[in-house]
């Protein structure tokens, strides 16, 4: 149970009901972080718009590279909600989710390509406090992915840092997206 409860369907107005319906259609359930942030409608709208635009704009990197870096960030920060949701997204992208079990051994595991290892190491460096990214690391990423690729990777890792830290602070935990039980989080009647 999050530290601040989710806004239920019965507590929403027409715009939020529409957002909840969209989320249920797209993901099978309303993501709990969205339902919690709904207590501040302007920030919820900003969050949803930012997420949709970032998703649409992030097309420079191969999906596996981007998603593995984001997943690693969630793992490093211990955000079970992000790990659950991220695994579901990778599954829907047709990516190999079985290798996620080897993410802690990415540096030596043959399950990860050189490009993926570079991105995961960058996620580790960006997620440290303080950040420990080096000039050499960015130069190597730029050679591999180009400037736009480095910016996309940096943005996505930073965005996941924000998500994971916010979810952890509010004690938002896994919702069952990977297991198909996401609807177990009761937000009210979806038809309302």
From TrEMBL:
Extent of the signal sequence: none
Transmembrane segments: none
Domain Carboxymuconolactone decarboxylase-like: 55-124
Full protein name: Carboxymuconolactone decarboxylase family protein
Organism in which the protein naturally occurs: Prauserella oleivorans
